[in-house]
Amino acid sequence: MLKRIKSIIDNYELIFKLSSKEIKVRYKSPFLGFLWALLVPLCIIFIFKIIFSLILKIPMGGYPFFIFLTTAVFPWNFFSLSVSNSVLSIQENSNLIKKIYFPREIIPLSIILANLINFILTIILILPTFYLFGLRFDYYIFLLPLVIFIEFVFVVGISLIFSSLQVYFRDIKYIVEILLFVWFYITPIFYSLDLVLNTSNLFFRLYMLNPLTQIVTLYRVALLKGYVFKLPAGINTLWLIATSMGISLAVFFLGLYSFKKLEIRFADLV
Amino acid sequence: MFAIRLENVTKKYIVSHEKEALVRHILPHFLRIKTYEELEALKDINLLIPSGQTLGILGRNGAGKTTLLNIISKVTFPSQGKVSVNGKVSCLVGLGAGFHPELTGEENIYINGVMLGLKIKEIKDRFKEIVDFAELGNFINAPLQTYSQGMFMRLGFAIAINVNFDILLMDEILTVGDIYFQNKCINKIKELKQKKKTIIMVSQSPSILNELCDRVILLENGRIVKDGLPHKVGQLYQEMMSSSRQVQSLSIVDRGSQANLSNLFQKEYLKTWRVCRDNWGTISGTKEVEIIEVMILNSLGKDTHIFKTGEKMLIKVIFFAHKEIDNPHFGVAIFREDGTYVYGPNTRFDGFTFDKLKKGEGEFSIEYKNLNLLPGKYHVSVAIWPEDESFAYDYHEAYYKFEVISEKKDHGIFYLEHKWNWRLP
Description:
- The complex is a heterodimer.
- By secondary structure, chain A is mainly alpha-helical.
- Chain A has one domain (2-8, 34-269).
- Helices cover 74% and strands 0% of the residues of chain A.
- Chain A is globular, with a radius of gyration of 19 Å.
- By secondary structure, chain B is of the alpha/beta class.
- In chain B, helix 3 (105-115) crosses helix 4 (120-134).
- Chain B has 2 domains: 2-232, Rossmann fold, CATH 3.40.50.300; 279-405, abc- transporter (atp binding component) like domain (Coagulation Factor XIII, Chain A, domain 1, Distorted Sandwich).
- In chain B, strand 6 (167-171), helix 6 (179-194) and strand 7 form a beta-alpha-beta unit.
- Chains A and B meet through helix 2, helix 6 and helix 15 of A and helix 1 and helix 3 of B.
């Protein structure tokens, strides 16, 4: 397994080249180019604003709606884009798989990396707007790189599993679509954790085991000043970091393992 | 040293049913029921390719040529058997793999180059060379979608050829592009040959293989049915293609396992040196021990093929034992071009026994103190046999050539040391 990781890391130049190709191709033709990376999530936020704050009136824990959503929609976007882009990546790159040998993990990995770069750039651009809403950051902002890293590891694991399975079962992409849809709703993106606390205790505990819930909550701890004091009882930052890290690493190694097992017949099946 | 070694390699493809899904494949797999058909693309291939050799692979569509290349390049895995590769492989199988039509030629050079295993710095160093070889000029800054098919291929070839490799795999690439570019590629390949790179090329064209290769194998239904000198195998291939009868008779042989196939050959022909010229220039045998290289050296130790009558000649053979062998013996025979069997000693008849041959590389040589052959062209057969000579481990039949020249006028086969005496009436 470690040898595998090493051979992937040895190919870092290839990963970077493929990611930059991915980014270039994505923004080369559209007139607005990279702006779309910002515009899409902003549009989502705007739509939510209309639906949830004007019509449904969901409490946001006392933060401006825009800020509250930004802290979750951008990370969610990174997750869902990476997973849905990489599910088909092996199958769609059959011309590479059939012709050249290199560690195949690099294909989904470079797509995720492209999305990660995208995500980090948009976060950097969006953070100053927090000041417009009168929000200041505290020391918890230094958690941000760690949280991004945890999410990245998790995304890689999930993508490796689905992209390799997709080669064998073409049904996976539909399953992933549904999964992402459900996952969006069981993650506290447009509502706050307090809302879940109102349900039964058992449900809340199960709910908190969703790694994306942990990750999104960590993003809020990092970006929203004072959010850490509003965490429900029994949940603290350390627990969030430890569990999300643990789950992410487990998923990551499971992904590497399943990918390695399934890789053997990639070239025959794509 | 060998570059590539395939041992009992079999590749099976599952003939894909419309839905190769849970019900059809995975569940039966756990229950150990076979619900799918299998297609054997390669059957029990044993192949040793010495480094520096240019090997051609000939065969009809679907014979398993590309699968063989893919297995060597690790693109696909063999179902059974072992593949060992010594050295870095570059693949001209997918020219321009990873090219993106919206990016410029330059950007694509970097992506494709890195994919083939170059470092970015190396690409920078070779950038000019690549662009020059591809003859793209200003197009290098234009997106790939504006390229013609020929430019596309040229760029792909130029990048792949500039990768550091020890082993080059090529799949039918010489049939694309115009004649000018084809010649350019052929010259480049000849240059690589001189640099002692190992090259494996698949082609449908015996004439190209004849021009470039040292050795050609003929694949038919996933088996190596002929192994030998390019002109010999090429000729057989053309006969096979032109008459369906030949194909049939070949496929009957195919159906037997490799052991049967070998037996058939061995019992009939391999017992002693074959005198019939039909199989000259071919390689056969069961390959437990394999001949890697044969050198014909003159008195100065130089590898040559021209000798003077009476000069010293040394034939040196390097071989590789794939497994432990009891009591083998070696033989070298010389034939004149017209088929005359000139001389063929072997180590057993000369009274030497080797109890056991361990796994690994070894060599033997035979020295002719005075090569008393008269001018003409000669062929050399080299073989390694088991004790009873019921078959051959490896048999290179009239595979190597040398020529004898002389200033004196002589007639016959041999120069016999002689002295005239006379008494005139």
